[in-house]
Amino acid sequence: MAQGRGSAMVTTVFLCTLMFVLHSEMAHAATYTVGDSGGWTFNVASWPKGKRFRAVFNYSPAAHNLVAVNKVGYNTCTTPRGSKVDKTGKDQIKLVKGQTFFICSIAGHCQSGMKVAVTAI
Q1: Contacting residues for 37 by C-beta, under 8 A, at least 6 apart
Q2: Which three-class secondary structure state does DSSP give residue 49?
Q3: Which of 110, 109, 89 is nearest to 101 (CA)?
Q4: Measuring CA to CA, which residue among 58, 48, 52, 65 is closest to residue 94?
Q5: What H or E segment, with its residue span, contains residue 91?
Q6: Cβ atoms within 10 Å of 55's Cβ, excluding its own
Q7: Among 103, 111, 20, which residue's Cα sits nearest to residue 58?
Q8: CA distance 118 to 110
Q9: Which H/E stretch holds residue 106?
Q10: Which of 25, 59, 105, 113 gives 64 a disulfide partner, CB atoms 3.0 to 4.6 angstroms apart?
Q11: What start-end ranges are recorded for coiled-coil regions in this protein (predicted)?
Q12: Which helix (H) or strand (E) element contains residue 25?
């Protein structure tokens, strides 16, 4: 198989898996009512405290990994020195307010589209 077609196939399989996982996780994710019983009203800025919002990445650890990077790393597909490389295949990442960028650091994977920017608000 040619290099380009192999990379395209890996990317396609990853994207299909990610879509399935995201759909499955959405069906099983906890649902919170903003402000709890008081609802959406004034003074709910502290409401998220103590609640965990996570992204779950499912993948084959024999084929991929997961690295949280900054925007430059995301745009250039580079992993900053000392970055934590997750490789369990079932990585649960706590999201923080703002954008978080993730890539697969296996050679050629990010460049073939195996990257995602997640915005938590």
Answers
A1: none
A2: coil
A3: 110
A4: 52
A5: strand 90-94
A6: 18
A7: 20
A8: 15
A9: none
A10: 59
A11: none
A12: helix 3-28
Tokens of 46: 């502290």
In the block, which residue shows the tokens 């970055």?
A: 83
Counting every residue written for the chain, the total comes to 121
Any idea which residue has 């409401």 for tokens? 47
Q: Which two tokens stand for residue 10?
A: 């890996």
Q: Which two tokens stand for residue 111?
A: 């460049």
**What stretches of the chain adopt beta strand conformation (E)?**
54-58, 66-69, 85-86, 90-94, 98-103, 115-120
Locus of tokens 């690295």: 67
Q: pLDDT by residue for the chain (121 residues), tens digit each?
A: 455 555 555 555 555 454 444 444 444 556 667 677 877 767 767 777 777 677 888 899 999 999 999 999 999 999 999 999 999 998 988 888 888 999 999 999 999 999 999 888 7
